[in-house]
Amino acid sequence: MKKISISFLSPKKIELHGLWLGKSHAEIVYIFLHGLGASIFSRLSLLELIANQKNTAVLTFNNRGHGLINSFKIKKNKKECDYLLAGMAHEKFTDCQDDIDGSISYAKKQGAKKIILIGHSTGCQKIIYYLAHNQRAKIAGAILLAPMSDYAGIDKEKNEYHLALKAALSLKKEGQENNLLASSLWPHYISAQRFLSLYTPNSQEEIFSYASKKRPILMKVNQPILVILAEADEYADRPMLEIKNWFDSVLNKKKKNESIIIKKASHSFKGMDREVFKIIKFWRG
Questions:
Q1: Are residues 55 and 132 in the same domain?
Q2: Cross-strand pairs, 129
Q3: Which residues constitute the domain of residue 163?
Q4: Please, are residues 208 and 147 in contact by the beta-carbon 8 Å criterion?
Q5: What is the pLDDT of residues 111-122, one digit of tens each?
């Protein structure tokens, strides 16, 4: 199978790097959005199976959530560029629209006639956010792999959470929301704005709101959606069947939406790529 290293610019001139798997010019293109801190190599064996189908290719790229702390080039002209601080610690969630727009534009330039978005973990939130805010986008469907709520998964009873939340809110009020939280408050590198985005119930990133009362924007998506859940997902805060029932209650079955639980699967679906692929292959969305 061909694996071509590629790069493209988003509409806001962010330089994004990735891999093109499969046919150089394919009618069907799957665009993959990796999860928090991940990379173009995430779920690569699954993506290779998808790309091996007839008239099919896969575009996977490092979106702004790549790595812990990263910088992305902003092209000003052929010789000059600025830099954007991103990565999972600093990424602004709503910037996912720009990343996805850039990837769709690139796929279309390669001759794609049918584009399907496929995301894993936080990549799922990004896909739904994009489709809900771009309802006329010519996307054939969306596949969500292990779409979990970060807010639901956090232990909100711990004093650690409340101290970090208080500090993040204070930094935001002072206009310093891009500053990292002190390591004494939170064990991982994370900016105040990113903490509030991931771990508060009313943020725009709280897409799968089965743990909050927020009205799901999932209902605004026009394209068919396939949800693949992992029964033993280590980021789930409740039995997976309850989460599946939430998705089923929100998704309109008339739009050929479907949800499936893969038994014994972990969040990464390790060792179960072929099982996941079979579900994707025979989905009639």
A1: yes
A2: none
A3: 155-206
A4: yes
A5: 999 999 999 999
